[in-house]
Specification:
This protein is of the alpha/beta class. The protein contains ten helices and nine strands. It has helices at about 5-15, 50-60, 70-80, 105-115, 125-135, 150-165, 180-190, 240-245, 250-270, 290-305; strands at about 35-45, 60-65, 90, 120-125, 170, 200-205, 215-220, 275-285, 310-315. The strands form two sheets. A five-stranded parallel sheet has the order 2-3-1-4-5, sandwiched between helices.
């Protein structure tokens, strides 16, 4: 559903936007209900914001595209007055509303003081992937002006830098198709009840680059590489023999124990700060043996401690 973008509407409602946390009746005598849950969807143009929004819409969220940030509190207030008909709201904020973008932080701070549960989902992608997508549809980047597509991308990255740092969930769509992005959104939002913390444990190969959506990165290249063991080379870290080789090396089990202990400390802090998503990247040279075996072991430990965990092997099979 698209929201109107008239400046006069923003002028009339932006300063008056309020969200009530009580259950008293409004002036028309209609009782207010619980404050809706709020998700802000933002990120790079071409990174999949529309797909993410459509996925939430299919999951029953009330989705508003390109709403000026100053109107977000008003939208939440209207949801609170819907007698439970609008319990979850997703708002897409992008550079098309850049004149209003400076109001976003003020609006979010206002919502925080009123006890609104809100999360920010940021869609990220590499410059190469974004250029390829814009060229394939023969459309200019919204910020390129008289310049090139890459100029618009650079300007947008700078504009969104602070918001990306505040995001609760960053999804890198560089190598994802539409169906894979929808699967990621489903994994995060389709549950009946919201877990305390969701973790994605991702194996990767350093030779293919760091995952841009990682919150934490660990390097397993301090362990011997099974690639140089001829009988193990064809297999991956999912193979029992490979995993046994990795964890029989000096320091491997100690690393897993201490890193899991560190993650308990970090997870407790994330919960206190209201952060619900964390991506833990485990790397080795090619993302095939050591990182895969370690990711599987670490994910099992997190799951055993009550953290809802998804394992992704980004680069397995690329060699």
């Amino acid at each position: 559903m698209n929201a109107n973008k008239h400046d006069e509407q923003q002028d009339r409602t932006g300063d008056e936007a309020q969200v009530s946390t009580g259950t008293s009746a409004d002036s028309a005598g209609v009782p207010e209900t619980a404050i809706p849950e709020l998700v802000i969807i933002s990120g790079m143009s071409g990174a999949g914001r529309s797909t993410a929004a459509k996925c939430l819409e299919d999951l029953g969220w009330f989705v508003v595209d390109n709403l000026p940030p100053a109107l977000i509190p008003t939208m939440v207030e209207l949801g609170a007055r819907s007698q439970g008909n609008v319990a979850r709201i997703a708002v897409v904020v992008d550079v098309r509303g850049r004149r209003f973008f400076d109001n976003l932080r003020e609006s979010l701070a206002d919502l925080d003081t009123r006890g609104v549960t809100r999360r920010i989902v940021f869609l990220e992608s590499s410059d190469e992937a974004l250029v390829r997508r814009f060229e394939s549809v023969r459309r200019p980047h919204p910020l390129q002006g008289d310049g090139r597509i890459v100029d618009g991308i650079a300007a947008e990255r700078e504009l969104l830098r602070e918001l990306r740092g505040d995001a609760d969930l960053v999804i890198d769509t560089s190598s994802l198709n539409v169906h894979e992005l929808r699967a990621k959104m489903d994994a995060q939002f389709a549950g009946e009840e919201e877990p305390e913390l969701r973790a994605t444990v991702m194996s990767f190969g350093f030779k293919y680059g760091l995952p841009v959506d990682a919150d934490l990165v660990a390097d397993m290249r301090f362990l011997p590489n099974p690639h140089w063991v001829p009988e193990l080379r064809p297999f991956t870290g999912l193979n029992e023999e490979v995993a046994a080789y990795v964890f029989n090396q000096p320091g491997a089990k100690e690393f897993l124990d201490r890193y899991a202990e560190l993650l308990r400390l970090i997870a407790a802090g994330y919960r206190r700060e209201g952060k619900r998503y964390v991506t833990i990247a485990i790397g080795c040279t090619g993302g095939k043996h050591r990182s895969v075996a370690t990711s599987e072991k670490l994910a099992a430990r997190l799951a055993a401690e009550g953290v809802e965990t998804v394992v992704v092997h980004r680069d397995m099979g690329r060699e």
